[in-house]
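From the shared-data thread, chain only:
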Amino acid sequence: MKVVVTVIMLSVLTVASSFGLAPTLVLGGFGGTGSFSLSPSPSTPYGDVGINESFGWRQAFGSGRYFSIASQGSVAAYAATLQGFLDNEAIDAELGIPSGANTMIFGGGFKSSDQNQSGYGSYILPYWSGEYRFARTNSGLQPSLTYGGRYVYQQLGGDNHFVEALALKLDRSSTVRFDGYLGLDGAWELWPQQPILSSTGSATSSLRQDGLVNLSVGAQGLAGYFLVWNTGLSAGVRVSNANEYLNATSQLLPGSEARLTQKGNASLAWSPTRSFSASLSAEAQNDAYLTRDALTSGGTLTTSKLDVISVGGGAKVSWTPDGRTYFVLRANGSRTFSNDPSFPQWSFDVSGGVEYSF
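Structure, as tokens:
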């Protein structure tokens, strides 16, 4: 855990210093408290204290080329029913190369954690992408085509999977105060740890494969001089050959992961002075399963299709007396509702800290 964070910091600083430019580095400490519950377990209150870092660097070269790199990481000691450490790490890099009036953008990075409260143990998520961004037209339209991929490794749970995706996006910037977009994307997923089951519940040689199509729309803008707003909506469908065997009734349930998904998000960021800023965010998601029925607490089928609703939000307040030392307060919460008693869960946390920008 600590080794991972150190490696990230050293690699990032080495890259930045090789170009002879000073990176933007923020180091801080924090403490907080919270609680979480994963159904059917009771709630678990906890307290934590830790350190965090964030880094950002962007360098423009001649002829419109650029390179950027960023990292975030934190390590916290927490006390709950069990005591231990929590950590998370992330690093992201991007390279932009002009192609005539258009631009090619290549990106990649990873997210990881050795100790966390997800229930899946250690995880690492490497990802990569390539985007061809067309020049903006006189009317403000800018189309782009993106290929992306990622691999999700989780120590526990059997949910490792590989994803390839293709996205078409149309961005519209009419004024400095408004920008909107429309996107259409599709993806293919391979789940090597989830074999397709036979009628008796035994594993076959076939593996789970999913296909996804998603339509999204969003906008962002400036209200007055100090308030930035952002909102987005999306709707998609997942088709899958995954199935599930219900031991309680010796039934094979086909199409167990096929579902319709709707998402929405919104955020506000307010910064009336250079020394003070505040932000709010909220999101919601509904997964309506097409063929999978909800289960009772005893594990038998109901007559209702499984439906899962997740909501969450957060708030952050920051104040600085000198542009380098920042006092930060954060609060986050989430809750999941379902007609299946094995799905509901909730969490919340509040924390405060001090960060210093070098």
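Residues 43 and 356 are 34 Å apart (CA to CA).
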